[in-house]
Amino acid sequence: MNIKDISSEELKKMIASLKMRGITNDHVLETMSTIQRHIFMEPALRGRAYDFDALPIGFNQTISSPYIVAKMTQLLIEADNMKNVLEIGTGCGYQACILSKIFGRVTTVERIKPLYLKTKSLLKSLGYKNISSIYGDGFDGYKLNGPYDAIIMTASPSIIPDKLISQLKPNGRMVLPLNINGSQKLYRVKNTKKGILKKEVDDVLFVPMLEGII
User: Fold this and answer.
1) Are 116 and 136 in contact (CB under 8 A)?
2) Angle at which helices 3-20 and 66-76 pack, to 10 degrees?
3) What span, in angstroms and rounded, lies between the C-alpha atoms of 212 and 137?
4) For residue 19, what is the enclosing H or E element?
5) So what's the pLDDT on residue 115?
6) What region, left, alpha or beta, does residue 102 occupy, with left being phi > 0 and alpha being psi -120 to 50 degrees?
7) pLDDT score, position 1
8) What is the CA radius of gyration of the chain?
9) How does DSSP classify residue 37?
10) First-to-final CA distance of the chain
11) For residue 160, what is the enclosing H or E element?
12) Phi, psi at 157, each rounded to 5°
């Protein structure tokens, strides 16, 4: 029996596990139940695609665990403000595809050119029409498609990049892993009239966020 035959059953188990771990948003759960995670993986790792692990995707990058993807997506959701989202760190494209079914428009930025080209081709082949793939430095964001209702970062900086804050709409929010004194914490950041409000959510482990393009 190959991975295509087992993916439906494995997806059901994954969604059940997400519910048990505290993912409560029906939109997130429904969306993740429709996207086959194994198609974003290297063939040798597809048998582990529905495990609750971060797995390598090449180029010293990883695909986040299903729980972290679900958790970060759930934190982004605000029912009245779901039009335009920016993702920093496209990776294999799994998170971008989930966002594309929740937000009207997704802009996703990747700094590693071979990974950018590979994932852009995959997303095109899958037929996603509302995802714009950008090759660039994540610290710069992508001002042209902003301002954004929400920003999600899938790599860990030591500070919140000012350029990204400037691309958030009033009342916009950002979910990111921050590396503070060698310890990574997941934060939800809100752009309010009183300034930037930051709430610590959980301990996490992401690849470091690096400047420049390669």
Assistant:
1) no
2) 60
3) 5
4) helix 3-20
5) 97
6) alpha
7) 34
8) 16
9) G
10) 39
11) none
12) -90, 170
Structure token digits, residue 123: 């997303």
What pTM does this model have?
A: 0.93
207 CA to centre of own chain: 13
Which token pair is 32? 């993740």
- Burial label, 170 (beta-carbon count in 10 A; 0-12, 13-18, 19+): exposed
Concerning whether 156 is annotated as a catalytic residue, the answer is no
Smallest CA-to-CA distance from 49 within 31, 62, 60, 61 is with 62
Taking only the tens of pLDDT, the chain with its 214 residues reads: 344 555 788 899 999 999 999 999 999 999 999 999 999 988 888 888 888 888 889 888 989 999 999 999 999 999 888 999 999 999 999 999 999 999 999 999 999 999 999 999 999 999 999 999 999 999 999 999 999 999 999 999 999 999 999 999 999 999 999 998 889 999 999 998 888 999 999 999 898 999 999 9
Whether 176 contacts 153, CB under 8 Å: yes
Please give the backbone phi and psi of residue 72, each rounded to the nearest 5 degrees, phi first.
-65, -40
User: How crowded is residue 211: how many other Cβ atoms within 10 Å of its Cβ?
Assistant: 11
Distance (Å, whole) CA 12 – CA 89: 27
Q: Cα separation of 210 and 110, whole Å?
A: 11
Catalytic one of 64, 100, 133, 156: 64
